[in-house]
Amino acid sequence: MDSMCEDRAMATRRHTVAVLVREGLLPMELGIVHRLFGQARDAAGRPLYEVVTCTLVPGPVRTDADFPVLVEHGPEMLDTADTVIVPASDLDYAPAPSPPGLAEALARIRPGARIASICTGSFVLAAAGLLDGRPATTHWKCAARFRELHPQVDLDPDVLYTDSGGVLTSAGEAAGIDLCLHMIRTDHGAAVANEVARGTVVPPHRDGGQAQYLRRPVPEPAVSSTARARAWALENLHRPVTLRELAACESTSTRTFTRRFRDEMGTSPGQWLTWQRVERACTLLEESDLSVDDVAERAGFGTAGSMRLHLQAELGVSPTAYRRTFRSRVAQPSR
After folding, report:
1. pLDDT averaged over every residue in the chain
2. Percent of the chain scoring above 70 in pLDDT
3. What is the largest CA-CA distance in the chain?
4. How far is CA 118 from CA 106, 233, 296, 299, 312, in A?
5. Does position 270 have pLDDT exceeding 50, yes or no?
6. Residues 98, 161: Cα–Cα separation, whole Å
7. CA–CA dist 191, 2 (Å, integer)
């Protein structure tokens, strides 16, 4: 009986993710949410999230594939959800009025709940006024129409996802993976998010933005990869890494290397290095009892002050606050 009560208490504390699906659902986007959040576990192996699917009118929901999805829950599931996610619909790709009841359903979301969209689900959030004055993204093919319909939104079609005060958006379908991992990382730290990424066989953090996926008018034949330089950089994060050294790994000039790197990764070598160091620092803060100074040195920031500035810029928290929030699998370091 005690065990049953404990299980029920754990279920009560579990973070609820409600996925609001509409006619024309893209099934992959629904699967992404269930698969990623469903894999997140605490140190004892207990699920950290409960994912529920709801729709405006319970019953079969048409998808853009040759099968429907049977959804048993209605919009009442939004009343108590901690996170609400709106996937895309094939109706988003052509101007169409909002279905009856959609605005009322969104109005049920409780204050303080996190709200996110995948792909063109951002059109729904924008139409509801949830993105006014905020940064947002959507699929690059729909960027022009999004700007035309919602000029009050600060649209950035080059990024994979945005996070602004509990309202999040992602680009195409696969960017929904990046967004879900970001939310898991925000809630429970890099260790949990990395474990989910490993279980899904995807990178825990994908570099660059949508620009790297745009069709180029004159594609370059046989552009060399920068993989050797990136592998070398990861082995040498603990020390200063120069652009000249990276270019030497690929036997090219710094100018050519920078261009190839940006074409391949969607970001600059310097920005990529900074994020790799942030990831390394987060892992060490969570999983080791190294001092903050030692973490800064091993992650390649040099000093604790430099690391503090970068973590504050990238994650919005100090190293000490990050460790205090997410370190649960090892004892706190002695001072």
Report:
1. 85
2. 86
3. 69
4. 16, 32, 35, 32, 26
5. yes
6. 24
7. 30
CB neighbourhood size of 97 (10 A): 8
Record the tokens describing residue 204, joined without a space: 């825990």
Q: Given a cut of 80, is residue 29 above it in pLDDT?
A: yes
* DSSP three-state, residue 138: coil
**Stretch 267-288: mean pLDDT, rounded?**
89
How many Å separate Cα 282 from the centre of its chain? 16
pLDDT digits (tens, 9 = 90+) for 109-134: 999 999 999 999 999 999 999 999 99
What DSSP element (H or E) covers 21?
strand 15-21
pLDDT in tens, 51-76: 999 999 999 999 999 999 999 999 99
Q: Which residues contact 45 (CB under 8 A, 6 or more apart)?
A: none
**Given this model, what pLDDT does residue 205 score?**
63
Tokens of residue 48, six digits: 């950290």
Q: In whole angstroms, what is the distance from residue 276 CA to residue 310 CA?
A: 11
The string of DSSP letters for 58-115 reads SEEE-BSSSS-EEE-B-GGGGSS-SEEEE--BGGGGS--PPPTTHHHHHHTSPTT-EE
Measured from the Cβ of residue 268, the count of other Cβ atoms closer than 10 Å reads 14
What burial letters (b/e) apply to 181-216, b meaning 16+ CB within 10 Å?
A: bbbbbbbbbbbbbbbbbeebeeebbbbbbbebeeee
